[in-house]
Design brief:
single chain; about 260 residues; alpha+beta; CBS-domain; 2 domains; four-stranded mixed sheet; 12 helices
Amino acid sequence: MRVNQIMSSPVVTLDKDQPLSNAIDLMQRNEISRLVVLQTGKIVGMITEKDVARELGSSTAYRLPPGRMHVSNVMASNPITVAPDVMAKRVAEIMLDHDVSGLPVVEGENLTGIVTKLDFAKVCSGYEDVYVGQVMQASPRTISPSDRVIHARRLLFDEDLIGLPVVEGDKLVGIVTMRDVAMNLAAFQKVVPDRYKSERIRNLLVEDIMTQPATTTRTDARLSKVSRLMLERRFSGLPVLNLEGELVGLLTKTQLTQVARERL
């Protein structure tokens, strides 16, 4: 299987000199987590929800709203690209080895598509013999609804996590992902006056931004079915429950990529 069989096309792009607020709007409008950044039609970078969360959670961002930041100051420059005839297995290896979640697909000088970790859900949708419990991340890091968003953000970055199940007592009450952090910080920046931003952001709680109730899966669910759900709903991660309804794992787009790499 080659990458052009699973990539997404057309690709949403924007110019490096556009304000960060335009990138955020494009991500929200198109329900995507990354954009390819161009300069005079050539690829010069990538900007992701993770980049947005990193920037808007910094102390500098408290003083400078997204409309006054430029994409070029936030993006990752010179992204790795792949040709459309590269094998999908090789693309999975590149993503996992370099800890990146998306690669522009380029033929000659033309941008023809983009492949992300979530696109490997298309591969995993054919694996009827694999169960979620076999491939999930066991005993995931969790967070409380009363924890601060800045703490959740720090965990997501420091431990390179895709999502944090939110647990109150022994009960799963939601999930907070990089998307939740990025887009809620962006929305917060719009409505809070500059002089209050620092204090308000420091006191923002996980329960204020988490997705609730969390969509879950079970250890005995077939990976094929869950992969299709993740692709359809654009889920980067799903909490996994055992047969007793207890939280025991997290299935993320990274696990889908790992399974594809092993089986392709």
